[in-house]
Amino acid sequence: MYSSIFNKLTAVMLVCISFNLGLNAQTVIWGVGSTNGVAEAEFQNPLLTATTATFNATSWTAQTISNDDGAGTVLTPGAAFWVRTTTGLSQGGYATNMTAIASPSQANGAAIFDSDFMDNGGTAGAFGTGTAPADQVGDLVSPTIDLTGYADSALVLGFHCKWRAFQVNNFWVSMSIDDGLTWTDVDVNTLLPSPTNTTAEGYVVAPFYTLTQGATNLTQCRIRYRFDGNYYYAAVDDLSISVAQEYDIAIGLPDPSGNNLASAYEDVRMGNYRYISKDNFEVTDLKEWFWGIKVVNNGYQDILPAQSPQAFLQVDFADPLTGLTTTAVYIDTIDIIDTLPAGAADYALPVETLRDLNFVDLNGVGDYNVSYWVQFAGNDANAENDTIKSVFTITDNNYTSKCRLSQDGKVFASRPIFPGGTDFSAFEYGSLYYFPNGASDSVKLDSVDIRYYVSNGYSGSASQTLVINVYQFEDGANGGTADGILDASGGELTQVGLGAIQISQVVPNGTYGVATATNIVDPAQGGTMAPFVDGGFYMVSIFENPSAFGGAATFNSNTGIWFGADEINYAINAALTDVTDYIPHPSPVKVVDGTGAGDWNWVGFGADIIPSIGLHLSFASPVLDVETVYETEGVNLSLFPNPATDLLNMNVSFEEATNVMYILTDVAGHVLNITNADNVTNDQQTLDVSKLAAGVYMVTAKTAKGTTTKRFVKQ
Questions:
Q1: Residue 455 in contact with residue 509, Cβ under 8 Å?
Q2: One domain for residues 436 and 551
Q3: What is the total count of domains within the chain?
Q4: Are residues 76 and 107 in the same domain?
Q5: Which helix (H) or strand (E) holds 190?
């Protein structure tokens, strides 16, 4: 079945590739790729500056709108200007690790609104001492562009962009057909989202489908970029104005400025983890094994269900021992029954559970590289935005985490995080985990790794203690609402584990540290924390409360420890929260102010930000009955005795004489023995397993017509 589906997908992909090779080219009117305005599109020449809306006909004009003087007084027009750069870099005090904008003509020049530099003059911490203290508003307006002949044409503006927002800054690209008297705006945040304090870079295509409708004079058109915010920078280069294509099916980008949870996602994080212990999933339990993507249409014509839009999934397995990759260990499709409106005005959300987890059970430990892509029976304008990739890893060291790993082998942090405001008495931040066979496999929490951050401005105690809390989450418990969501009161949480982390010699250095809680105890009964329950959801959190350890009653961003966090997007998983089955909470947070007021927020600082927490688990050896892992009709395999101590009998029967191969593997997928039998209808082989370590093993009977895999226990 898998091979037939794979062949079908391959054929469809080849057809789509041939379509794209012939039809992907767009008519470029102005800028890079045309014969008009290339020098201006590549910012080869200096920019002019202005404090009023007086725009040059042949050059870019940087117009300052306003900025703050550092003392809260808004200066109009101020001194906040876009500038031309030949390095493609910000000169600000907080851009030391920045790489240049990756535009093809970057060395010829690019344009940048360097909010960071204008505020601090290039010195970190020197806030408000630069030429134009933040907040700032600045425009960059193009020379006049003649679009005569393109009235009633659907247009798009493409450009390379790199920007980083400190807060949710406003960044627009606009076009005018009346010499700048009126403008049509497009929010860059919806095209290339830059979440708080995060760099975003890519090629942006802004739609202006109706700009020229009914126009009688297109000789005085212009482009405008407007930055309105506070730190860090926005850079653009290599512009082009083109005639839009009818259809462009694509995977939608997350929108941090959206007004609902769904707007923040792009794909499902399969399994709800980045790292999953090989013993912490059950092949028959699909509770957290979803796949799906956000699908949009950037073209100017609707894509209808009759055009057969589809979402595709392929999982490839990379074996860490051999270095070999097995492609298409799992493939799947979803038919999209929704209309995809033009201009990415709306999206479809095709989501479904996996059919099975046999591919994980058969391949075992290693990286599972996940590819999602979309296509339809039509002419797709841009194939480069049709695919997205992710990865999850099955580990053999009982490690589980929602976050990535750093180069030091410990849990990764891409950013530090701390609540906004001041004077807190407690700060708690955690993630939810699922244990399908917690009690059956006697799954225990051995230790917890965290990554924390000490700011440059730290002025707190030289020694700090953080707490690891473990809660069982039971939806609807203690009078809570059974809605799949953690209640703000936290009444659905029962504390079952407690650990402490001592951080000594804390000094202000602006760097991360790693710490581990190794003794997780039962806070109610004493002694080691009990195993998890079967099918249980548990939240593991980092808790900061200095007063509990003799410290100050309140703390702030300078006297407290910041928590490390990884920007890995689980928003779509959170959007799938199900009261009856699937409860994938991203990372709940509770911030208690100086008066003692504070509630739980079940999506934390955002479903794309996860606290840097890694779990080390322990498991009892499971005792299993004979269980069919994967079976093909016509291949009958039996194993006995099970459990086995010294000898294992393998028996097969077929309707006609067949060649059969018996393959013995461990649960990680490593081949331990191969036995062949030729031209048999009934066959029994005896295998010496006395030297195998106690545990679970797999036997696969493989023939030309199919395979059957069963597992047994070696005592």
A1: no
A2: yes
A3: 4
A4: yes
A5: helix 188-191
Residue 603 and residue 674 in one domain: no
CB 497 within 8 A of CB 470: yes
Separation between Cα atoms, residue 118 and residue 138, nearest integer Å: 12
For CA atoms 297, 301, 306, 307, the dihedral sign is negative
Same domain, 383 and 532: no
Task: Enter the tokens of residue 622.
Answer: 């499971």
Kindly state whether residues 70 and 121 are assigned to the same domain. yes
Contact criterion met (CB below 8 Å) for 122 and 90 = no
Q: Is residue 18 part of a domain?
A: no
Question: What is the pLDDT at residue 574?
Answer: 77
The last residue of a domain, from among 601, 618, 635: 618
DSSP code string of 404-429: PB-TTSSB--SEEE--SSS-EEEEEE
CB distance 624 to 697 below 8 Å:
no
Q: Provide the 3-class DSSP secondary structure of residue 572.
A: helix
What one-character-per-residue DSSP string does 113-138 give? E-HHHHHHTT-TT-TT-SSSPSSEEE
Q: Are residues 220 and 287 both part of a single domain? A: no
CATH value at residue 118: 2.60.120
Q: State the pTM of this model.
A: 0.70
Look up residue 650 and give its two tokens: 């393998």
Name the nearest CA neighbour of 545 among 454, 462, 448, 468. Answer: 468
- Examine the domain organization and report whether 293 and 218 are in the same domain: no
Q: What are 88-131's pLDDT values in tens digits?
A: 999 999 887 789 999 999 999 999 999 999 999 999 889 999 99
Q: Which residue is associated with the tokens 């700011």?
A: 455
Q: Are 296 and 303 in contact (CB under 8 A)?
A: no
Mean pLDDT by 10 residues, the chain (715 residues): 37 32 61 96 97 94 93 90 97 88 95 96 91 95 97 93 87 97 93 81 89 95 96 96 90 68 73 92 87 89 95 95 92 95 84 91 93 93 88 93 94 92 94 93 95 93 95 93 91 96 88 93 91 95 94 94 91 73 84 94 87 93 47 76 90 86 77 85 90 84 81 84
* Cα separations in angstroms, 200 against 228, 344, 383, 552, 645: 17, 20, 21, 39, 57
Q: Do residues 324 and 422 share a domain?
A: no
Which residue among 395, 415, 442 closes a domain? 395
Look at the chain and count its residues: 715
Residue ranges of alpha helices (H) inside 576-613 are none
296-307 residues labelled b (16+ CB within 10 A) or e (exposed):
bbbbbbbbeeeb
Joined tokens for residue 594: 């100086």
Q: List the end-to-end C-alpha distance of the chain, in Å, as a whole number.
A: 36
Contacts of 344 (CB under 8 A, 6+ apart): 190, 207, 250, 252, 296, 297, 298
What is the span of the domain harbouring residue 471?
Answer: 399-618
Question: What is the distance between the alpha carbons of residues 466 and 523, in angstroms, rounded to a whole number?
Answer: 16
